[in-house]
Amino acid sequence: MALAKEQAELVKKQIYQQLEKFPSPQTDALKKQIEKMSPSELEEFIKQQQKMSSQKEGIEETSCLFCNIASGKQKSIKIYEDSNVIAFLDIMPASKGHTLLISKNHKQFLNDFSKEEIAEIFDSLKKVDKLLIKSLKAEGSNILINQGEIAGQRIPHFFINIIPRYNDDNINLDFPREKAEEKDLEKIASSIISEKSKEEDKKEKEKKKEFRDKTKKEIRKIHKSTPSRFAEFV
Are residues 78 and 18 in the same domain? Predict the structure, then answer.
């Protein structure tokens, strides 16, 4: 069934708000094109966009090495698997038992996961780390997460390095450092705290909006049921 006129206008408004984030002659032309669409044409346009987005995600996942390992298309020496992650031995290990733990879902950064997903991933991480240290009699381990190409994330799929450590492994993770001025640290801290406040304000606004939307929905339900209630007393 085609969108109602009011629904179509609301959807158009939401699309315009998204397009405003990417100002360009192309988006201006797209706005004009959307403005002329009838409700049925708008619905078809949305379906096409969703289809294209789904196809794009499928291509990205198919070409991702870690996705192929997760699906079994690419061979790996697997040591652990559950519903959320797979852990396998790195083919170019920094030490004996160097393991990569990857998410089964194609997500690149830690912030892409929900709180529940992060909790499940780190629960699996604890199990694998304990297993490696105990079975290989390691003295300890380094747990590293590379986020972004500049940080060494060569594959845009979330993974965690678990590197067992031994007395004679010759691994050096001692980065070059120099003492920072207190005023510089305070400036950095101020910038971080300011961003934190912005995020908290944003979340608070989202909560209020969610509450307003929920309230409006409940009011509409009451309005719809009101005539039938009056009819009971007629």
Answer: no
Domain boundary among 138, 165, 192: 165
Tens-place pLDDT, residues 129-157 = 999 999 999 999 999 999 998 998 989 99
Do the domain assignments include residue 225? no
Considering the domain boundaries, does residue 196 fall inside one?
no
pLDDT tens for each residue of 84-141? 999 999 999 999 999 999 999 999 999 999 999 999 999 999 999 999 999 999 999 9
Looking at the fold, whether 158 and 90 belong to one and the same domain comes out as yes
Domain with 44, as residue range(s), is 5-55
Beta carbons of 158 and 107 less than 8 angstroms apart: yes
For the packed helices 39-62 and 5-19, what is the interaxial angle rounded to 10 degrees?
Answer: 50
Domain count, the chain: 2
For the entire predicted model, the pTM comes to 0.60
Phi, psi of 109 (to 5 degrees): -115, 160
Give alpha helix (H) positions in 20-83: 25-35, 39-62, 65-71
Handedness of CA 191, 196, 200, 205 (dihedral sign): positive
**Residue 157: is it exposed, middle or buried by C-beta count within 10 angstroms (0-12/13-18/19+)?**
buried
Residue after which a domain boundary falls, among 140, 165, 190: 165
